[in-house]
């Protein structure tokens, strides 16, 4: 399988399927669970902006820059969020996992941990990545803690890195998992998921 070729990744709790325009309404319903677009430190599209956000991701996918996924509960088939491979650097075998959000009712259920297990496993085992980054807003303490629990190491903070939709400046915390760290991270995630 070539780098960033669309792929469906399936676990026990979640199925990550390539994003399409057909799921816009389901994504809009999922984002309403917790009104995630209201989090000032996150860039989550509001329900009425979902079609434009999906079209933007699909255009970037066509350009070979990203691979967006819909997160679907395996037990109910319900769409509960999205996640994306982005900032792909093929020559250096690096990419980022980001643009991730989950409906509030599914947070803390193991879906996020399993999705990261699937994404990291595919990046390291199918695409032979050297490093995978995960980034978040400095103020998003819940996300920072979740990334650290995955076993990723904090590389640093990019201060005033991005301008947010409200005009504020985002300090971006950069974490990564390196190829030689993946076996330990994989074992830790499997232990968490087996509980």
Automatic annotation (TrEMBL):
InterPro entries: Acyl_CoA_acyltransferase, GNAT_dom. Transmembrane segments: none annotated. Gene3D superfamilies: 3.40.630.30. It comes from the Bacteria. GO terms for molecular function: acyltransferase activity, transferring groups other than amino-acyl groups. Residues 13-153 form the N-acetyltransferase domain. Pfam families: Acetyltransf_3 (PF13302). Keywords: Transferase. This is RimJ/RimL family protein N-acetyltransferase.
């Amino acid at each position: 399988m070539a780098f960033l070729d669309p792929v469906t990744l399936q676990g026990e709790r979640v199925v990550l399927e390539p994003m399409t325009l057909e799921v816009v309404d389901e994504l809009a319903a999922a984002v309403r669970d917790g009104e995630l677009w209201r989090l000032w430190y996150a860039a989550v599209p509001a329900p009425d902006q979902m079609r434009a956000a999906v079209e933007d991701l699909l255009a970037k996918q066509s350009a070979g820059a990203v691979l967006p996924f819909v997160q679907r509960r395996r037990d109910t088939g319900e769409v509960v969020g999205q996640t994306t491979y982005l900032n792909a650097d093929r020559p250096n075998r690096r990419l980022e996992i980001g643009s991730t959000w989950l409906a509030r009712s599914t947070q803390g259920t193991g879906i996020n941990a399993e999705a990261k297990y699937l994404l990291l496993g595919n990046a390291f085992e199918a695409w032979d990545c050297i490093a995978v980054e995960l980034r978040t807003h400095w103020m998003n303490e819940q996300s920072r803690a979740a990334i650290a629990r995955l076993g990723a190491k904090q590389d640093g903070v990019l201060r005033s890195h991005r301008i947010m939709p409200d005009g504020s400046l985002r300090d971006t915390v950069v974490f990564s998992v390196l190829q030689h760290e993946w076996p330990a991270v994989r074992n830790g995630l499997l232990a968490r998921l087996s509980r």
